[in-house]
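FAQ
Q: What does a multi-component entry look like?
A: The components come first, one per line:
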Amino acid sequence: MSVLVVGSIALDTIETPFGSVHDALGGSATYIATAASYFVNPIRIVGVVGGDFPLRGLEFLEQRKIDLDGLEVIENGKTFRWTGKYHYDLNIRDTLRTELNVFEKFDPKIPERYRKSTCVCLGNIDPVLQKRVLDQIDNPRLVICDTMNYWIEGKNRELRETLKHINVLIVNDSEARLLSSEPNLIKAARVIRSMGPSIVIIKKGEHGALLLTEEMVFSAPAYPMENIFDPTGAGDSFAGGFAGWLVRTGDVSEENLKRAVIYGSTLASFCVEKFSVEGLSDLTYLQIQDRFREFREFSRFDEEVNTRTIPHTV
Amino acid sequence: MSVLVVGSIALDTIETPFGSVHDALGGSATYIATAASYFVNPIRIVGVVGGDFPLRGLEFLEQRKIDLDGLEVIENGKTFRWTGKYHYDLNIRDTLRTELNVFEKFDPKIPERYRKSTCVCLGNIDPVLQKRVLDQIDNPRLVICDTMNYWIEGKNRELRETLKHINVLIVNDSEARLLSSEPNLIKAARVIRSMGPSIVIIKKGEHGALLLTEEMVFSAPAYPMENIFDPTGAGDSFAGGFAGWLVRTGDVSEENLKRAVIYGSTLASFCVEKFSVEGLSDLTYLQIQDRFREFREFSRFDEEVNTRTIPHTV
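Then the predicted structure of the entire assembly, as tokens:
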């Protein structure tokens, strides 16, 4: 199995109550590919940067064994930049500035040797571009897609068309409600599944995630984080960890989809512990496995077998 | 072990997108006692109603084997009434009218034979009254307490005093944040624990609940409800199921606290399926046990043991 990631590659300037960074490596493709690279490699990336993209950015991606042949560098252009500020309550963020730069005219061209990729991860970009990517791939076996309110509202028809070709849609709770016009998340997922994706994942930030298929609802807990430094990239790290685990194991059974959600949550939890991609820069197998087990530990409960305690007064 | 419940007994008029009820049985003590009655009985209740309190209300409570000797009836007064409206998104509710009536001067008098109750459940009432209840009990072994933003803001000093005598505080996420001045829920629970309660439960509505002790964080899933008819009383049913299970088993080990949270969630999930207390009127042992197991089923995941799938590329 081979993984192709298409999305933004950005330089982020981020302010949080705990510090700030300037022109740090960011973007959906960056986080997805980095998180997935802990499970399979090389990961193929298609994106665009300007001539100002720093060498350290390229070195970071290469160190994670990410295949950069699909990275377009527009020498006389500037890299996409995002400036945001998180408040003391890290659930609230303000976008202070978005400079699309070379990303404005991004038209993903999939290199010939990427066209047989078996898994395609579509970061949160224009659904028209997402569809154009898929048109260039020969029979992908697994297509994972992210989107956002901006496209749900602004390009609904185009998004609906793209969704017909998606296997797994990963959205957050407000996006699921907006896309489905249904406040109940279980019903919302059913509506979204009727649009195409057979698997819907609803991320709920500090509240964990829901995985919904035709047969199953799985409620994944969130890691009880006390020290979130920078929430940027958490959702993309989730998608990358999820995709990476599925591709690594080649197993899309329900039990393994659940594990993939926990591995996605695991990578997201590491991501938010440091600024930018720092939290994903240097993980070990043991750290990932230990955190996976922690997720089990704090969500596990057993039924008591001692019959003394069975309620007999009912 | 014997359980004393003190709180409001009300007649609720509720409108939801799915229908409406007028003067239906409600109030925190009603829901707590009813839910707890599935695990232990009799449950002792202390509250106040007016001469207009309907016979069917008394019959309902008696049928659940709730001991009504502590129920004060003020013949020439009117019962506390609450009128509320839920929107299509059931997370949003408007209080249309609150008529305190006899509840305005409620001053809980604990009957002599209730004073050795081992477990006291304090519904969401003025923290001054909560403290006055505790002053009348000889060495309760387990004190469980609910509160709300109104008291956190309006009677903060009095609430802090009451909290010193509480073992388990059950609040929702916004209340936890307000009480602790801390947006991170894990940190918020630690702040609240420093105020007195050694166990903090944070209810998160459709996102489940957190149970936090000195040693443990437990993340309980929410039941994936598709058809919520009336969310009124969900939090009180949770408290009642939680208390009932703990008292029934006489076991406050961490493993059993987790089970109690799931039994609380189970009773809450039944509560919201029908209007008023209807959802709690006629449950069977098998229904409760089956739903407990469903909670396990949709939150359970396993680690794969097949070493083929252990990520070796990290």
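Q: Is there any commentary attached?
A: Sometimes. For this entry: Chain B touches chain A through 65 residues (CB under 8 Å).
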